[in-house]
Amino acid sequence: MRLYTHPVCLQHAPGPGHPESPARLHAVLAALDRDRFAALDRIEAPRASIEALERVHDPAHVARILASAPADGLVRLDEDTLMSPASAEAALRAAGAVAAAVDAVLNQRASRAFCAVRPPGHHATADQAMGFCLFNNVAVGAAHALAEHGLERVAIADFDVHHGNGTQDIFAREPRVLFVSSHQSPLYPGSGGAEETGVGNLLNAPLPPQTGSQAFRQLWDERLLTRLDAFRPQLLLVSAGFDGHRADPLAQLQLDADDFAWLTARLVDIARVHAAGRVVSTLEGGYDLDALAASASAHVAALMA
Ligand SMILES: [Zn+2]
After folding, report:
1. pLDDT at 256
2. Separation of CA 283 and ligand 1 centre (Å)
3. How far is the CA of 165 from the centre of ligand 1 (A)?
4. pLDDT above 70: percentage of residues in the chain
5. pTM to 2 decimals?
6. DSSP string, the chain
């Protein structure tokens, strides 16, 4: 199993006090530096190509992000999405990690990969940076799998506590991509109602605050995993946000690290049945550093199993 990351992802710094801090990725990488993860094949993430980015983003958006990193200080793209001098390069490496990981699993150099990258991606729409996200990393990977590898069925499972509105926006009319998402509602960004079904390729499962482990697992078991299984994905991508953890300051879903391990194992099971075990997961949210480290460790350990 591969671990993709890049030092520049630690340099994207949206400002003091911002929850999407470099300390998040430091915490994840420190946790993955322990002996139990010694078998991970560590790869430096390449830059995404412009072609790969423009499969899911308007060329004007790509150009705007690449031109917006300031020489010093910060540039604000929306209320909570900011760029520092290293941000454009970090965004290129974050998206490039997922595309490269897709190549690795489809060329049988690995069966699974985790992309420990930031900025996160799932809120970035075709033409807009938002919610701490600049490029939609998981969408770049999915589109790359369709275009470069000729896949006909790619599934994206998004268990971040926030709805992956950007991923949904990009693939809402693309029947080769199934997007399944559980998320807290009401919560930012406000989308992700059960009635949002795209061309029959979206499954949105909003959850109330205080949902907890049992109801979360039951929902995935009965609805989202069932749907993934029926779709028979040739590749499974994961938007792995850990902000559903009970310690997270941005949400109240009340999950534990064990829940992420459980769900990851179920996702691997589905990938083994339909996709030769191929799973590419990428880091999205998670804002309590200890909970993030424990949850990401549990997730990666389950991917390695
Ligand atoms: Zn989130």
Report:
1. 98
2. 10
3. 11
4. 100
5. 0.98
6. -EEEE-GGGGT----TT-SS-HHHHHHHHHHTTSGGGTT-EEEEPPPPPHHHHHTTS-HHHHHHHHHH--SSS-EEEETTEEE-TTHHHHHHHHHHHHHHHHHHHHTTS-SEEEE--SS--TT--SS--BTTBSS-HHHHHHHHHHHHH--S-EEEEE-SSS--HHHHHHHTT-TTEEEEEEEESS-TT----TT--TTTTEEEEEE-TT-HHHHHHHHIIIIIHHHHHHH--SEEEEEE--TTBTT-TT----B-HHHHHHHHHHHHHHHHHHSTT-EEEEE----SHHHHHHHHHHHHHHHH-
